[in-house]
Each structure stands twice: as C-alpha cells, then as structure tokens.
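Hi, here's the filled form for the chain we discussed.

Project: internal
Contact: R.S.
Residues: 287
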Amino acid sequence: MPEFFIEIGSEEIPSGYVEPALIYMREELASFFTLNQIKADVPQVLGTPRRLVLSVKGVDALQQDSVDLFQGPSISVAFDDQGAPTKAAIGFARGKGLDVSDLTKQSTAKGEVLCARIEKKGRPTQDHLNEFLPKLIGNIPFPKKMRWQNKTCTFARPLHWITAIFNGKPLQFSFDGLECGEYSSGHRFLKPDKFQVKNLSSYLEQSAKHFLMVDPELRKQKIFEQVQELAREAGGSVEEDLSLLNVVNYLVEYPVAIRGDFDRCFLQLPKELLIMTMKHHQKYFHI
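And the returned structure, exactly as it came back:
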C-alpha cells in the first residue's frame, strides 16, 4: 500500500522544541486521516535539530466514500393539506443542493421528518495532503517563532527545504513560497550533499551515508554508549541523567563524544558547582 513521508528541513531548532513538535505532528496527522476517512497505519516520527520527519505506511490512495444524513422539517410542516411541498421543504432541499423529490422520510422520536441523503465520492489522498500539510507546518506550536527574509509565515527557525512524498512521488504544495520536493540534505558539515528520497527505507539508507542518525532513540543510545566508554578509559564513570541526555540528543545529528579535561586547580571549587556549570551551561557529562 502507499506510504507517506515528510521531512521539514530547517536551521538548528532549539533542543527543547523538537520532541514536542514531533508529537504534535504525529497526533495531528493521525487525526487528519481519521477525520477524512483515510485508512492508514500509526505515524512514525524521527527528528534531529535540523529536520522533523514523519512517515506513515499503509495509507489508502483514495478516501472512502461517505454518506451524510441530514434531518429537516417534520412532514406536517413540509407538506400542505394537498401534499404539495411547502417553503420549508423547498428551502431545506435547496440548502442541501437537492430537489424535493430527492428527499426521503425518516421516523424519529418526534415523528416523521424529511431527510436529505448526501453521497460523497472519496477524493485522492494526495489532494487532501496537498491541502492539509501547509496548515500542519504553520500550526506547529513552538514556544517562540520567528520570521526571516521577506517571509510572512513563522517557524521556530528559517526553513531550507520540505521533502514530501506519497506513493513514491513528490506532492505538490508550498509553504510561504517554499516548494516541497523529493530531495533532502546531508549533515551540514560532514556531507551536505542533497539526496533523493523515495520512501522511509530509502531515506534511512541515504541518511546513514550522509552522516545523519535521524532515529532519536538510536541516537540517544549511541550518545550514552560513547560517553560511558570515554569515562571507562579515564578510570571513572558517568551518572545516567535522562534530562541532560534528552537535551544533548536533540543538539546533534551525528553524535561523536569527545573527552576533555581542565586544570586541576579548578577542583578547589565545590564539585557541585563544577557539575552544575558543566551540565547546565556546557551540556557536558561529568566523569
């Protein structure tokens, strides 16, 4: 079945903004598919400071057909003594784009009423996505937003690209003049080349070749493993600090831990002061 993929590429988003943005995107997209009667699997989210990524597999290519029933005036009000439709019946039918002859009757607790049955043919899913995605991007609730250049829309940081693919083909929409496409970009310094995206599988494969670790859980695991290894080499250990680990996790796209040191004379300061400074100002793990 078709797969939907989107990546929003930007300058570095503040660490604390990334995870809430991904959660919002996942929930909003799941609601979008449900409300529009489009069958789809649970959305999967990935992300780094420079990219918000969402993928959904098993998406129907066509929205399901639907039938809406609308109750109108009672039969006693809708027709006169000769059985001719009144203004109430004619106005109700016109409001629903129907002729009075197209209306049916329905029994309710209050008696028989006129009923309008509206059948809607499902539209292509890609049409719905093209309409919805610009709104989704613009509504991501960052604590602070900014404008740049001559743009009118706001975002956490300036946007550089939008990759949006459905069923292997790029979608057709824009956000404040930025056209979506089928290309992403690698690590800003290690390999900034563009690469084509066809689906989540190809994206992950190309990301690995472009020094990107886009899975937050995998990246978090690698960070702590590297930190622990450096601590062991130094003859010490690192306390597990999930709060600090989460912050650092969304500061990097390709983690490489480095062990540093400082003049031992600074150890005359209380260790609590040193640790607090390293954690809260430098985002360092103390050994």
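Let me know if anything looks off before we file it.
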